[in-house]
Automatic annotation (TrEMBL):
Short motif (Q motif): ranges: 4-32
Whole-protein coverage range: 1 to 212 of 461
Record-stated family: Belongs to the DEAD box helicase family.
Domain Helicase ATP-binding: 35-206
Superkingdom as given in the UniProt entry: Bacteria
Name the record gives this protein: ATP-dependent RNA helicase DbpA
Amino acid sequence: MTQTSFSSLALKPDLVSNLATLDYNEMTPIQAQSLPLIIDGKDVIAQGKTGSGKTAAFGLGLLQNLDVKRFRIQSLVLCPTRELADQVAKEIRKLARGIHNIKVLTLCGGVPMGPQIGSLEHGAHIIVGTPGRILDHLDRGRLNLDNLNTLVLDEADKMLEMGFQDAVDAIIDLAPKNRQSLLFSATFPDQIKGIAGKLLKDPIMVKVESTH
Ligand code: ADP
Ligand code: MG
């Protein structure tokens, strides 16, 4: 049987105490199936409905595997919209509360470039953003992915629906080859299979039908 207790994972103590504060007592089914694999460094495709807890599934994985002492961009999360990117960043910051000096930076379109450039100069551990703006920063040499360990596509179906296929493709090409990749989606249309083939290496598929 799949373990549903967070205590089966040997998470960092700060993460354990934040989960208690958030009242996350048990893993949701998608978390129970994907989180051990993510922590183990595997490439994962996870399909689950809205509300199934996908953000904490990859968020806890990123935070668990992050080396906080190394102030370099180690994780990049791509989201379809600014609202979704803000939600993801907010959830990751909640999960990371108290972990010393951890920096989660959002980079989305529709907001001025200037402050983003300034923030990038200060550095970050985790970047969350929309594909167009991320690619823009990469093209201009402002975003360095040399130390990237994990690339996440969140709401991949929506991202492709919104026409981000080319930008996502280009970002994948610019990311280091030796990385972990994670793909989260509510649905799995054919278009995603194309990008999954390019993104992931020997991925493990995790699919959860119900929310809880
Ligand atoms: P999805 O991305 O799959 O649509 P979210 O990551 O937004 O889902 O999570 C949905 C809600 O469930 C959020 O309010 C989140 O705080 C909550 N949640 C996530 N994981 C847990 C958990 N293990 N226990 C309790 N609530 C959780
Ligand atoms: Mg989500």
